[in-house]
Structures are given as C-alpha cells and as structure tokens.
What we know:
HNH nuclease domain-containing protein; HNH_nuc; three-stranded antiparallel sheet; flat; alpha+beta; five-stranded mixed sheet
Amino acid sequence: MRARIQLNVPLTTLMGLSQRPGELGGFGPIVTEVARRLTLNQLTNPDARYTVGVTHPITGQLLHLHPLPQRFLRGLQAELVHALNQRCIWPTCRRPAPTCDLDHNTPHAGGGPTTPTNTAPLCPHHHSVKTESAWTLHQTTPGHYTLTDPHGRHHHTHPPDLTDPAPPQPQKNPKPPPAPPPPAPRPATPADDDPPPF
C-alpha cells in the first residue's frame, strides 16, 4: 500500500483573500505560497500523488477533497471518508482512519448503500464491538456521527478541524453600554421647625 499525502488549505487562502497557511497532513503547517503552488500542481499534473482538501475558513472542517488522478478513482470514496474523519470515529480512539475498517452505518445486508454518507472508519476492535453487540451508529451529516450504546446513551462525534479556525474578528463600532438609569427622586421629608444651629 502506498502512502498518500493530503494537503489541507483554507478556501480563502486558495482564493487569495487571506494569508493563512496550509496544513500538510501528519507534518504540520506550510507556507501560504507553497500551499497555493502545490494545489495548482495537483490541478494541472496528472502524475500528482496527493490530495488537496479545501477547508472552511472559519471552522477548519473539510468542504471538498480534490480527487486523485483518474487511475486511482477506485478508492476515491474511501479516501473521502478517511480525509473527512482522520481517525476511528469511536469516542477517544486515536487510530488513523486509513488503517481502519470502513463500516456501514446501515448494514449492507439491510439495504445500506456503500457510499461516503453511509460509511465510517472504525478500528478493527471497535468495528467488532459495534457489529457483535447492541451498539448502533447513525451519521446525521457527513462526518457527524451518533453512537448509541446498549443502555440507550448517545455519544456524538464530529470531524476534526483540518486547518486552524480563523481567529475571531474584532467588532467594528461596538455599541456603547446603556446609560445607567437616573437616580430615583428622594421622598420629601417634613421640614423641621427648629432653625439651624449656626
């Protein structure tokens, strides 16, 4: 099996609207200009052997995975599931997705299709636990899963951020705090008949 490299780049970086770096899966951040050149190379070079994941500029989650060249299309759906989830989707499991089994959320025998929207990466141990016991798995949206244990408790997982989320932007012209209410008028006190001592 050949190793595959995934380059993740925020959409705004590819559009030239920001200078946020790309992220080379398993290695770390790479300079913005290098990320743009590698992406262009992937689009124009049929021999490129890596994928480009376009990420949401705010959340850092995968929006689109640029496919591998034509000769690799057989594994494209698996590649998409691996790229989206990165790891076994069982809570607290850290096994990398490419070394996991692709499990059908709705069993294939029960009419579940073999598509990215009905598969999830589960390590062999957790695949066995889900298949051989009363655990159920439901994918609400791509990469967002709900595992239900035999006692009916729900465990939610979601895809990791593949690039750092954008820092929050400062508010422009924030509204000033509301003025404090005027003091309540004092109740009138009866005047003393005695003159002041001075």
